[in-house]
Design brief:
Number of strands: 8
Radius of gyration: 17 Å
Strand content: 35-45%
Distance between the termini: 18 Å
């Protein structure tokens, strides 16, 4: 029996994460492992495809200078290939350093992510490195719908097609 709001929200998010992707289900429920009682700190992996980055401030083929604003979008799946669609992804992306002007491990972008699932959204924020295939640690700062009150963090690996990458992404979420 849940005795406080924090436990109730945590149990709601965990319940969302353990459902198997039946017809009409999406979001974290599509990638659950089916266990009845997952432990706090459980990891969920989501895979992005058709990863695109655009900006009305850049010409096609131009590398983004520091300060440029961009939009990232893609689709989220439960497996790297041949899986079920779990949702869509959108992000605002602000370039911190011009590519090639700093080491790949230096901060490259400030990003605000929104994962849009059938049953709600998750929002995350953080900084990714300046490598062509960027990596970063992000905080889950909230959610809506079934993910209301969500907390945790995740590692994001993004390979933007327009910046010479494969157009894919991987997100490893740790829910608390």
């Amino acid at each position: 029996m849940t005795t406080n709001r924090r436990d109730a929200l945590k149990n709601a998010l965990i319940s969302a994460a353990v459902g198997i992707g039946a017809a009409g289900k999406s979001g974290l429920a599509a990638v659950g492992d089916g266990t009845a009682e997952p432990k706090p700190g459980r990891q969920v992996v989501l895979y992005g495809v058709r990863w695109q980055i655009t900006s009305q401030d850049l010409n096609r083929g131009e590398l983004p200078p520091a300060g440029i604003r961009m939009l990232v979008r893609g689709e989220i799946f439960d497996k790297p290939s041949g899986g079920h669609k779990a949702g869509d992804f959108f992000a605002t992306y602000y370039r911190l350093n011009t590519p090639g002007k700093v080491a790949p491990h230096e901060p490259g972008s400030l990003e605000l992510h929104t994962f849009v699932f059938f049953d709600g959204t998750l929002t995350g924020s953080g900084v990714a490195n300046s490598a062509p295939d960027s990596e970063g640690q992000f905080a889950i700062i909230g959610g809506t719908g079934r993910y209301h009150g969500a907390r945790g963090s995740y590692q994001a690996r993004q390979s933007h097609a327009e910046l010479g990458g494969s157009g894919t992404a991987t997100f490893t979420l740790t829910l608390i």
